[in-house]
């Protein structure tokens, strides 16, 4: 079981290193624009660029085009940004959240109740689904004689 824990820690460290590399590649202006609160940046690309340029950082100033590249916006994309569209999605968000929490809780319960930490359940499930995928169903066609 320590191997699983060590593997998780290794993956977390890889994610942290990737975040550090990304932060070092981004320019200072763009990094601050992405991480500053919306209340300070104003919520639009133009006001965010103005906010960062007035901080007095050294280097080239940032423009609104560098923050959000121009792209066509479809009518369906615009309609999803309305408050009414966000209210329609709220039940789906709750259902998805509850499903993920229930799935995570079941994994924790299996890990606590199984003496081997749920590895037997994982192997049984993986073997069952792999067998079904590879070999198909176990039913064989019957020959009828008339």
TrEMBL record:
One of its GO terms (cellular component) is membrane. It holds the Pfam family CstA. Residues 1-67, 84-123 form the CstA N-terminal domain. It comes from the Bacteria. GO terms for biological process: cellular response to starvation. InterPro entries: CstA_N. This is CstA N-terminal domain-containing protein.
């Amino acid at each position: 079981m320590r191997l699983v824990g060590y593997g998780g820690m290794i993956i977390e460290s890889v994610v942290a290193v990737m975040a550090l590399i990304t932060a070092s590649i981004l320019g200072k202006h763009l990094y601050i624009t992405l991480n500053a609160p919306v209340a300070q940046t104003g919520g639009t690309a133009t006001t965010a660029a103005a906010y960062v340029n007035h901080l007095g950082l050294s280097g080239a100033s940032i423009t609104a085009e560098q923050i959000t590249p121009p792209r066509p916006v479809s009518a369906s994309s615009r309609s999803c940004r309305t408050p009414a569209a966000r209210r329609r999605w709220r039940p789906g968000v709750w259902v998805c959240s509850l499903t993920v929490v229930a799935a995570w809780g079941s994994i924790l319960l299996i890990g606590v109740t199984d003496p081997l930490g749920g590895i037997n359940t994982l192997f049984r499930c993986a073997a069952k689904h792999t067998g079904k995928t590879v070999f198909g169903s176990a039913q064989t066609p019957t020959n009828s004689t008339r």
